[in-house]
Amino acid sequence: MYQEKIISPPSGYLTFAISIALLVASILCFVSEIFLWGGILLAVDIFLIFPGFLIINPNQSMVLTLFGKYLGTVKADGFFWVNPLTAKRRLSLKANNLNGQQLKVNDKLGNPIEIAAVVVWKVNETAKAVFSVENYMQYVNIQSEAAVRHLANIFPYDHAEGEETSITLKDGAEKVSELLENELNERLSRAGIEVLEARISHLAYAPEIASAMLQRQQATAVIAARKLIVEGAVGMVEMALEKLSQKGIVELDEERKAAMVSNLLVVLCGDRHVQPVVNTGTLYN
Q1: What is the spatial distance between Cα 187 and Cα 195, in angstroms, rounded to a whole number?
Q2: Could you tell me which residues are beta bridge partners of residue 6?
Q3: How far lies 281's CA from each of 264, 284, 285, in Å?
Q4: Which end of the chain is less congested by CB atoms within 10 angstroms, N or C?
Q5: Which stretches make up the Band domain (predicted)?
Q6: CA 145, 149, 153 angle in degrees (round to 5)?
Q7: Mind listing the pLDDT tens digit for each residue in 106-124?
């Protein structure tokens, strides 16, 4: 596997001055009708000087090869001159966004889900990006999709009934993103790619089970709400009986207490407005 080698070619300004001087000299030779020397100087300038000029913009690099041999990579921005026979390939070192497409996969529990991820990456080692893989951008796309599929297969979408899983795709966003970033860095290191950030951008149940899962979530929410209401109602009934006993407002036997508790629980736990009923008799008539 190729290792990146950073090189610093000479500045191109001196060579540019020599090129201008050769161009002026060739023009003077043509004017003086010294066509042979004029042609030689012009050919040297066009074919041996001009092709060697190299302009590197900020956050760009140039991979140089000579007759199939890797010479090195120029990462410094500026104006340079290199061997005119070298082959040059320009690579951007800027950060790239990969907005992955929505994938339909099965989670750990076998439920079909839709998942997508956003990956921020950049080229870190140009030699690996050029020589180790055929097309490093296509390599990033395919390996990112494979990593997202693998991540979805090893974690459940949500907690199963009666089970508390440590990490889920829905609730463990930070941990899942960290694992996805680490796996992508491992997969893409062969191509000299560094992953700066990876996060889940879309997560949902597949349409065929979305309705059923929504009903399950609604039922879970209703049960949790009812549980909270009952706990609060029992506390309020207990407090009411204690206050009545402390202040001696009324003396209640066990049967009247049971009736009062029953009525209060109906009032507090019911989901509809209560219609009051005035009892003009006694509890026993």
Answers
A1: 10
A2: 73
A3: 19, 8, 6
A4: C
A5: 51-217
A6: 170
A7: 888 888 889 999 999 999 9
Measured between alpha carbons, how far is residue 108 from residues 40, 151, 187 in Å? 73, 9, 22
Give the angle 47-51-53 at the CA atoms, nearest 5°: 140
CA pair distance 123, 189, nearest whole angstrom:
10
Q: Which amino acid is at 175?
A: K
Tokens 């889900």 correspond to what residue?
113
Q: Which residue has the tokens 């209401």?
A: 229
Rg (CA), the chain: 38
Report the distance separating Cα 188 and Cα 285, nearest Å.
84
Work out the angle at residue 209's Cα, subtended by the Cα atoms of residues 205 and 214, and round it to the nearest 5 degrees: 75
Q: Can you tell me which residue has the tokens 């966004």? A: 97
Q: What is the residue whose two structure tokens read 């097309």? A: 135
Q: Per-residue pLDDT tens for 205-219?
A: 887 765 656 666 665
- SS3 readout for the chain: CCCCCECCCCEHHHHHHHHHHHHHHHHHHHHCCCHHHHHHHHHHHHHHHHHHEEEECCCEEEEEEECCEEEEEECCCEEEECCCCCEEEEEECCCEEEECCCEEEECCCCCEEEEEEEEEEEECCHHHHHHCCCCHHHHHHHHHHHHHHHHHHHCCCCCCCCCCCCCCCCCCHHHHHHHHHHHHHHHHHHHCEEEEEEEEEEEEECHHHHHHHHHHHHHHHHHHHHHHHHHHHHHHHHHHHHHHHHHCCCCCCHHHHHHHHHHHHHHHHCCCCCCCCCCCCCCCC
Q: Is the pLDDT of residue 237 over 80?
A: no
Tell me the β-bridge partners of 79. Answer: 55
- pTM of the complete model: 0.71
